[in-house]
Specification:
The structure holds two protein chains of two kinds. By secondary structure, chain A is an alpha+beta fold. Chain A has helices at about 25-35, 40-45; strands at about 5, 20, 55-60, 65, 80-85. Chain B has helices at about 5-15, 20-30, 40-45, 60-65, 85-95, 105-115, 125-130, 135, 140-150, 165-175, 205-215, 235-240, 250-265, 290-295, 310, 315-335, 385-390, and strands spanning about 15-20, 35, 55, 75-80, 100-105, 155, 175-180, 220-225, 245, 270-275, 280-285, 345-350, 355-360. An eight-stranded mixed sheet of chain B has the order 8-7-6-9-10-11-12-13, sandwiched between helices. In chain B, helix 1 (about 5-15) packs across helix 5 (about 85-95) and helix 10 (about 165-175) crosses helix 16 (about 315-335). Classes of the chains: A alpha+beta, B alpha/beta.
Chain lengths: ~90, ~400
């Protein structure tokens, strides 16, 4: 099953979990399952139009899904999705 | 028995002499002429013609074939005033079979008096050889790399968690000039991680405190202090002239502002950010790799962008990330290794993991997809909800 790595700023919305297994054949499906299990992540990941928020970077393994096929990018069982927020702390 | 003056006069009668202007033209026309400085080492070290090869007259016969194996190549010799070079030129053409030899009339003295440029090589002092001894024995750095470090100007944006270790280690490494931008004062709560500051400097401006720490390690470093906050009105003036910028800013508006200005001026930025147990690191080299906006087109809303003040940070984390920044700065300055361009390095301290992600240039990037000259002052640091975001920044 693919896994999703949750950044610290989203962990309050996932009951503190940092790595969450989630099923799905593509990036959109995996993230939808994440949202189903942790509804508080809905507004943080997706806009009202159902698209990923522009400030949310999603990586399939080491590649940005924006340069793949976005939410339609196929996901294999051994893949890892990395949710990457910008951070400004210095 | 001829006198020394007789020998010099006779040699000058046998060899072709060229005025500095003719030598200048000859070297500029790209026909492959080689210029040889026949003076002593200490004279060569003080100043020499650009691209001159040093073959002291005392070593002429033993070294010239190594320097100029092709005896038909045009060879111009010079010394201080034109006497030694005439004797050397005579030797080359009369005894060693060089067919196109000339001596520069008046030597480097007349060359300089004519107004032509010379190279004045920078050399390490005995104290510098001692201080940087462990750099000098690394082949990738060596004396040439150390001289690059000593000549480099690096600007630190922030003298806080990230800026502190960067400042200390770059000072130790011998970066010639360290600029520091910070408008804050040292607070007791900083000392858990901001190691350039100290208990007895609480209340002191961070730029002053950092300067003390830098000079305590290496008094040779020139410190340029900017006790200000980077803003659209001062960013271009502040960052101009620096070779590399280290971004350790604690807020998004400053990071976007710095990005836009550094792209316009084509200055690479070594960027890191920290929160909790997590760190991110990337090198943004304008027009070589992606810029900050390619990676993060828009900042997250305030609730997803807490500051270290709000959410805390492990005290050693900026040490880890800051030293990775300092390492990237040194690589950029010395031009070694593979800088972290087009990649984002994530460090997660609790899991002790490093993750390397690819970052691509965005062909539609609002900043770096354009010619730098077209990026206006009014656009620097602007993003759609700037005003709303600024209120929550910091």
């Amino acid at each position: 099953m693919p896994t999703v790595r949750i950044p610290p700023v989203l962990r309050p919305s996932t009951a503190g979990e940092s790595v969450i297994p989630a099923n799905g054949a593509n990036v959109g499906e995996v993230l939808r399952e994440l949202v189903d299990r942790h509804p508080a992540t809905q507004g943080q990941l997706f806009g009202n139009d159902g698209e990923l928020n522009r400030y949310v970077n999603v990586y399939l393994n080491d590649e940005d899904v924006r340069v793949l096929s976005g939410l339609d990018t196929p996901v294999a069982a051994e893949d890892t999705l990395v949710l990457l927020p910008a951070m400004a702390g210095g | 028995m001829p006198t020394g003056a007789d020998l010099i006069r006779e040699a000058k009668e046998r060899v072709r002499e060229l005025d500095p202007s003719a030598v200048h033209d000859l070297l500029g026309n790209g026909n492959g002429a080689v210029v040889i400085d026949v003076r002593e080492q200490h004279e060569f070290d003080e100043a020499h013609l650009p691209d001159a090869v040093h073959v002291p007259r005392g070593h002429l016969e033993s070294r010239i074939e190594g320097a100029v194996p092709d005896r038909s190549r045009t060879v111009v010799l010079y010394c201080a005033s034109g006497n030694r070079s005439a004797l050397a030129a005579d030797t080359l053409q009369s005894e060693l079979g060089y067919t196109d030899v000339a001596s520069m009339r008046g030597g480097i003295t007349l060359w300089q008096a004519t107004g032509y440029q010379v190279d004045v090589p920078t050399r390490l002092t005995p104290a510098q050889r001692d201080r940087y001894a462990r750099h000098l024995v690394i082949p990738e750095i060596g004396p040439a790399g150390q001289l690059k470090l000593l000549g480099a100007k690096v600007l630190l944006l922030g003298a806080g968690g990230l800026g502190s270790p960067v400042a200390l280690y770059l000072a130790a490494a011998g970066i010639g000039t360290l600029g520091i931008v910070d408008d804050d004062e040292v607070d007791l709560s900083n000392l858990q991680r901001q190691v350039a500051h100290s208990n007895d400097r609480i209340g002191v401006a961070k730029v002053d405190s950092a300067e003390q720490a830098i000079h305590a390690i290496n008094p040779e470093v020139e410190v340029v202090k900017y006790r200000t906050r980077l803003e659209a009105a001062n960013v271009i003036e502040t960052i101009s002239g620096y070779d590399v910028i280290v971004d350790g800013a604690d807020n998004f508006p400053t990071r976007y502002l710095l990005n836009d200005a550094s792209v316009r001026l084509r200055i690479p930025v070594v960027s890191a950010s920290i929160l909790g147990f997590d760190g991110q690191l990337a090198v943004f080299a304008p027009y070589v790799g992606p810029c900050y906006r390619c990676l993060y087109p828009t900042p997250p809303p305030a609730e997803l962008a807490p500051s270290c003040g709000d959410n805390g940070v492990l005290g050693v984390l900026p040490g880890v990330m800051g030293l990775l920044q300092a390492t990237e700065v040194i690589k950029l300055v010395v031009e070694i290794g593979e800088p972290l361009i087009g990649r984002l390095l994530l460090y997660e301290a609790l899991g002790a993991t490093f993750t390397d992600l690819k970052v691509r240039r965005d062909p539609d990037c609002p900043i770096c997809s354009r010619d730098p000259e077209t990026i206006s002052d009014e656009e620097l640091g602007v993003f759609p909800d700037y005003a709303a975001f600024c209120g929550a920044a910091g």
